[in-house]
Specification:
The protein is built from 18 helices and eight strands. By secondary structure, it is mostly helical. It has a single domain, classed as Serine Threonine Protein Phosphatase 5, Tetratricopeptide repeat. A two-stranded antiparallel sheet has the order 1-3. A hairpin with a 2-residue loop joins strand 4 and strand 5.
Length: about 475
């Protein structure tokens, strides 16, 4: 039995994509323990670790995390023959499920966090040794801080109830790790409030390290990405003033992708002017989301999703082919002969400007500023239905009506991008599927222990400091 699961995950992760070539986990772990200090002895090692961190982030975003929030909600159904994500779709997750999201989201998340923590642990010594590389090291640390914040957020979403589940977020969260624990350490779960404090501090520090530097490519983390993620985090925390301020900074600096480029932006032929951060999967053969939502895949748009559309001219209809969600499909896939998947553009969004508009609109609603919320919603809707903003008419009597429009637009814009379940729970709603769902579960009422996954058995057995979620 492994003495402490999180520790070997952390020490192994640097070499998950590296020179070892080992497939046996324990062998990689042993190599990692011996060679991590050597790897971080020069700038080449630090740069290699940064590359590895991006690859781990790609795997995480192209893997179970983005699928889980959709299949456990109401806008995506699975085919009767599907096996991938079927346990989460039917709310049957158990701690023993070592080949499902229960294990993968936890394990791979802490792998990813480990790379970030390795960078942040060894960077100060490198900065002292190579002072002429100080600026580069600061920028690498900024990216690692962002990834650590994002990873804490994603794992906490999956294994802990939302921030507002208790009035002070004192309910149990996940381990908030800023260092590599020792082999005999009992790694315990922090409160959700403590996890979010770690997240907000990391994003603040990352944003300050980026300073005035502008990174032109949306495929790399930037100061703008930090600001955008701050807006999302503050929204989840219910700090609407802070969410509004962060969102406004991003909106002032960027423009929405025009309607003419919308479909191509989604299908990764063009980056899109609204792309804040998207993770680049070109020249990687593993495109899990593309397969999952493909015509031969497991998932398809539910009738509830299709029924949310209200205008036949909506550009987002282009993301549907029948009930196939083509947000991750690329037109070149239909060419004969088919190109090598290795060469097909594929870049799932982590942050884009449309979400930031919707964050600000929601904040305005919660602050009872309906006119400002309506203006943000009109910007999104005008692009979608192909009308000038001044011709968009919203029927509402107050902020509560506009919140219904915020939810509708979040569904139409963000379905498939990993938000829906977490929107349902932070809004303290019931999860309700249409009657034609293939799932054995049509409704899950809020609050409910089934809205979070159990801590995997491997962690429970290997770490005596761990506490299981109620089941």
């Amino acid at each position: 039995m492994i003495k402490n699961l999180i520790y070997p995950l952390l020490s192994a992760s640097l070499f998950l994509f590296g020179s070892s070539g080992c497939s046996n986990f324990l062998n990689v772990d042993k190599l990692g323990k011996n060679d991590v200090p050597k790897t971080f002895s020069d700038m080449d090692g630090l740069r290699t670790s940064l590359t590895g961190m991006y690859r781990l982030l790609y795997n995480y975003y192209d893997g179970d995390y983005l699928k889980y929030s959709e299949v456990a909600a109401d806008m995506i159904d699975l085919r009767p023959t599907a096996s991938d994500m079927i346990v989460q779709y039917n709310y049957l997750s158990q701690q023993e499920d070592v080949t499902t999201s229960v294990e993968y989201i936890w394990r791979d998340g802490y792998h990813l966090m480990a790379n970030a923590n390795n960078i942040l642990y060894y960077a100060p010594d490198l900065k002292a040794t190579f002072p002429h590389h100080a600026k580069e090291i600061d920028l690498i640390c900024a990216q690692a801080l962002f990834v650590r914040a994002l990873t804490h957020f994603m794992i906490c979403n999956t294994y802990a109830q939302p921030y507002n589940y208790t009035s002070d977020a004192s309910h149990i969260g996940i381990p908030a790790l800023t260092r590599l624990p020792g082999a005999n350490d009992l790694v315990k779960r922090n409160s959700v409030a403590e996890v979010y404090q770690r997240i907000t501090e990391d994003l603040r520090d990352a944003y300050n390290l980026f300073g005035s530097l502008t990174i032109e490519s949306p495929y790399f983390i930037s100061g703008m990405a930090c600001r955008a993620l701050q807006a999302r985090i503050y929204l989840y925390m219910g700090d609407m003033q802070a969410a509004l301020e962060c969102a406004s900074d991003v909106i002032a600096a960027m423009t929405l992708t025009p309607r003419s480029d919308y479909a191509r932006m989604m299908q990764a032929e063009v980056a899109g002017s609204e792309a804040i951060f998207r993770i680049n999967g070109i020249r990687i053969n593993s495109h899990t989301l593309r397969k999952f939502y493909g015509s031969d895949g497991s998932a398809f748009a539910s009738s509830k999703f299709s029924g949310t559309f209200y205008d036949n001219n909506d550009v987002r209809w282009q993301m549907l082919s029948g009930n196939i969600l083509r947000k991750y499909w690329n037109p070149s896939e239909d060419l004969i002969p088919k190109p090598n998947e290795f060469e097909i553009p594929f870049a799932p969004f982590i942050l884009r400007l449309t979400e930031i508009y919707l964050i600000r609109a929601e904040a305005y609603c919660e602050m009872n500023q309906p006119a400002q919320a309506a203006a943000d919603l009109k910007a999104i809707i005008a692009r979608a239905i192909g009308k000038p903003v001044e011709e968009v008419v919203l029927n509402y009597s107050g902020a509560a009506d506009l919140m219904n429009i915020v939810e509708r637009e979040r569904i139409l814009e963000l379905t498939g991008e990993g938000h829906r379940l977490f929107d349902i729970t932070r809004w303290k709603q019931n999860m309700v599927r249409n009657s034609d769902t293939n799932s054995s579960v049509r409704t899950v009422t809020y609050p409910n222990n089934r809205f979070i996954l159990p801590i995997p058995r491997t962690e429970m057995d290997g770490n005596k400091g761990m506490v299981q979620n109620p089941m």
